[in-house]
Amino acid sequence: MQTSSNVQAYRAGLLTFHADPAFSERAHSWYEDGLLIVADGKIQAAGDWDKLRDTLPPDTPVTDYRGKIITAGFIDAHIHYPQTDMIASPAPGLLPWLEQYTFPTERAFADPAHAAGVAEFFLDELMRVGTTTALVYCTVHPQSVDAFFTASEARGLRMIAGKVMMDRHCPDFLCDTAERGALESEELIGRWHNRGRSQYAITPRFAPTSTEAQMELAGALARKYPDTYLQTHVSENEDECRWVQQLYPNARSYLDVYDHYGMLRPRAVFGHCIWLDGEDRARMAETKSAAAVCPTSNLFLGSGLFDFEEADKAGMLMALATDVGAGTSFSMLQTMNEAYKVARLKGSYLPALRMFYLSTLGAARSLHLDGTIGSLAAGNEADFIVLDPQATPLLARRTARTESLEEMLFALALLGDDRVIAATYSAGKRVHQRES
């Protein structure tokens, strides 16, 4: 029996998803005056205030967020925590950007104290923008992974991360060996995977920086530990695609390189997926692999435009992602803003409801974590955020004139940023509150 001492209650507008709005007319529930009930870090109920208020134990305090919107916490499907300090670094394209900024920045993560300091700032920033779960790249240094998970575990966050595996075409100071990369990755799996809310991702950086021997070992790890994640990059940039073709001349496509080594599977997430063809997309759907769509990064580096329409035709799993530091904002709202424009430039249209879905339940489904996070369904972990439609004078003026939920969410996506996040909760604990 629940008592008021372990129950938390929140009154606000409630938005939660049950399905993809692109394929279902009843994909979401909206309670204009809603009540969210949480106990012991889990969601107990979400619905109309009038229907649920009498179910609360006597004397339960109710946090009043009326005028604001509660939804599931955002999920970022592709982000590099070591690149926090090099965000907004100028370069003419992906490959020179890696050489000039990325690799020198990642060198410093050999120092555990430096890694810990960046991890703390990085997690502060995620909480500030309402991101409660992220799929995170660390560096080749095992201590970068330990620092990250130590910081996220202390905050009680659900995070997924892994050590980069990279044994060629990189500076000597970051160059692994195939065997050491696999050994250290397996040790990290044993240390962190499914420890509390931490989960591990096998992380070959991308095919050009791994020898065939390393790809074999990464694929073997993916088969040995099928409930781990696997994350990497694919078909981001045309120069990169041509390079992969030279390095792997027997592969049908860039994606086929990973397929050859057994890396396409549930819980495999491929960043970018811009230059895939129809056969690639069909293979992604067949294997339940997911695409992490990174619009701010793709626009920043001039990599190309993700094709939402073709991905939908193939039935691919997909989620939105920031890809910081090539991505130019930690905010999933800003990411939605650019995703909308990318879709328009490719001749398709992303409604606001779809963008919010792709940042919550859609992302959870891509990570095979629906039923755990991504919605306000009873039994889910209580990761949720509070959105303020009056966060800025312009947003307040625009939202005062909206006539539908779609208009309201569209304004939040196109005009919103970190200021919209009034509060962030992880497992029922408030981990961020916006300064007034």
From TrEMBL:
GO terms for cellular component: cytosol. Pathway: Purine metabolism; guanine degradation; xanthine from guanine: step 1/1. Its cofactor is Zn(2+). Binds 1 zinc ion per subunit. It comes from the Bacteria. Its EC number is 3.5.4.3. Residues 69-431 form the Amidohydrolase-related domain. One of its GO terms (molecular function) is zinc ion binding. Keywords: Hydrolase, Metal-binding, Zinc. The keyword Hydrolase applies. GO terms for biological process: guanine catabolic process. InterPro entries: Amidohydro-rel, Guanine_deaminase, Metal-dep_hydrolase_composite, Metal_Hydrolase, Metallo-dep_hydrolases. Pfam families: Amidohydro_1. The keyword Nucleotide-binding does not apply. It catalyses: guanine + H2O + H(+) = xanthine + NH4(+). Belongs to the metallo-dependent hydrolases superfamily. ATZ/TRZ family. Catalyzes the hydrolytic deamination of guanine, producing xanthine and ammonia. This is Guanine deaminase. It comes from Pseudoduganella albidiflava. The lineage of its organism: Bacteria, Pseudomonadati, Pseudomonadota, Betaproteobacteria, Burkholderiales. The gene is guaD.
